[in-house]
Amino acid sequence: MTDSSRVEPFDAVDVIRTKRDGGRVPEDALRWMIDAYTREYVADSQMAAFAMAVLLNGMDRDEIRVMTDAMIASGERMSFAGLGKPTVDKHSTGGVGDKITLPLAPLVAAFGVAVPQLSGRGLGHTGGTLDKLESIPGWRAALSNDEMTAQLRDVGAVICAAGSGLAPADKRLYALRDVTGTVEAIPLIASSIMSKKIAEGTDALVLDVKFGSGAFMRDYDRARQLAETMVALGTDSGVKTTALLTDMNTPLGLAIGNANEVRESVEVLAGGGPADVVELTVALAREMLALAGQPDADVEAALRDGRAMDAWRRMITAQDGDPDATLPTPNETHTVVAPRDGFVTRIDALSFGVAAWRLGAGRARAEDPVLHSAGIDLHAKPGDRVAAGQPLFTIGGPDDTRFARALESLEGEWEIGDDAPVRESIVRERIKAGGY
Ligand code: URA
């Protein structure tokens, strides 16, 4: 709220002009700009102009740090200092079939580390972790801070909805960027993501920064730049931060949707599951445990011997979910088969994400519900040999009314060729403090 008697120390137009002309905004002016925007003294039109100036002219490391700090200061700051165990969080920039948080949080918790995973709902073609978990009957996403702390102490892992108290300045700014063509500015993305993660009060953070067709950042070099910027920001704020750059040209795993992604996560926790999901879960768990002081933890053993599954069951039960409940399955399905013998050479992540979204697995507006049974099950991945007539993928949902539009987005988006493509590992690079 604005206070008309208050004397403002800066003028938004001066701040905008400085950035427009390629200058460096002084720390006190930048802090004021964010604070005054949160108080609704700086108008949306002025913040939009500033965001565009940042997109065009960038920010240096110190400006990004100040901007992030100012966004953290706009809201509450959580602390898990009294838990008596290290806290490590993971953030993914989002992708298709990205259910990694589900097996990862209990896996890491199985080693006595606390994993406070504040998550969101999906918008557009990338799914939301909370939407997936809500396909488990009874499971509750909203926890009070006290419930969250108790669960971290007793179970170790919690995946729940982020309260609106964390970095409220970011909430307003992100909505504004969305409608002003300024989402893509790396300083703004980095400060947006990191303000929420630092405000959450974790000791350490591992970032899964994706590149490729289904990723928020398609281009490898830009994804790398984002990863470096976020690692530097976390490090400057005293949060031990590393990042993995991971491939999102192909959907992760075989399941894209909600209930089917939970099913696949449980397979991983039972020691099975698709190789790429296991690879990424294990790589991220190793990073998280290394930051928590356990560089030699035998992560695979915890998947094999049931310790991770045990933590999962306790995590779901603590939030009123029934880990043994039957998950929703589609009433209607349609299977696409291989038209010829050969090797699957491409399954485009973005198009399969859009198709799952069109089936109802995702939402177009924040207030829309999702259909938990809707989604896609892949039967083959790039590199697999298939014979003519063999199932390639199955789309499904409560009814078939959405099938035609989903199939439309898949036309020409998968390919079968004569030669097997070169299999590359999902994790391409590890970014740690020092680079910028
Ligand atoms: N996710 C966020 O939280 N913020 C961004 O700016 C982009 C992705």
TrEMBL record:
<feature type="domain" description="Pyrimidine nucleoside phosphorylase C-terminal">
    <location>
        <begin position="343"/>
        <end position="417"/>
    </location>
</feature>
<dbReference type="InterPro" id="IPR017459">
    <property type="entry name" value="Glycosyl_Trfase_fam3_N_dom"/>
</dbReference>
<dbReference type="GO" id="GO:0006213">
    <property type="term" value="P:pyrimidine nucleoside metabolic process"/>
</dbReference>
<dbReference type="InterPro" id="IPR000053">
    <property type="entry name" value="Thymidine/pyrmidine_PPase"/>
</dbReference>
<dbReference type="Pfam" id="PF02885">
    <property type="entry name" value="Glycos_trans_3N"/>
</dbReference>
<dbReference type="InterPro" id="IPR036320">
    <property type="entry name" value="Glycosyl_Trfase_fam3_N_dom_sf"/>
</dbReference>
<dbReference type="Pfam" id="PF07831">
    <property type="entry name" value="PYNP_C"/>
</dbReference>
<protein>
    <submittedName>
        <fullName>Thymidine phosphorylase</fullName>
        <ecNumber>2.4.2.4</ecNumber>
    </submittedName>
</protein>
<dbReference type="InterPro" id="IPR035902">
    <property type="entry name" value="Nuc_phospho_transferase"/>
</dbReference>
<comment type="similarity">
    <text>Belongs to the thymidine/pyrimidine-nucleoside phosphorylase family.</text>
</comment>
<comment type="subunit">
    <text>Homodimer.</text>
</comment>
<dbReference type="GO" id="GO:0006206">
    <property type="term" value="P:pyrimidine nucleobase metabolic process"/>
</dbReference>
<dbReference type="GO" id="GO:0009032">
    <property type="term" value="F:thymidine phosphorylase activity"/>
</dbReference>
<dbReference type="Pfam" id="PF00591">
    <property type="entry name" value="Glycos_transf_3"/>
</dbReference>
<keyword id="KW-0328">Glycosyltransferase</keyword>
<dbReference type="InterPro" id="IPR013102">
    <property type="entry name" value="PYNP_C"/>
</dbReference>
<dbReference type="GO" id="GO:0005829">
    <property type="term" value="C:cytosol"/>
</dbReference>
<dbReference type="InterPro" id="IPR000312">
    <property type="entry name" value="Glycosyl_Trfase_fam3"/>
</dbReference>
<dbReference type="GO" id="GO:0004645">
    <property type="term" value="F:1,4-alpha-oligoglucan phosphorylase activity"/>
</dbReference>
<dbReference type="InterPro" id="IPR036566">
    <property type="entry name" value="PYNP-like_C_sf"/>
</dbReference>
<dbReference type="InterPro" id="IPR018090">
    <property type="entry name" value="Pyrmidine_PPas_bac/euk"/>
</dbReference>
<dbReference type="InterPro" id="IPR017872">
    <property type="entry name" value="Pyrmidine_PPase_CS"/>
</dbReference>
<keyword id="KW-0808">Transferase</keyword>
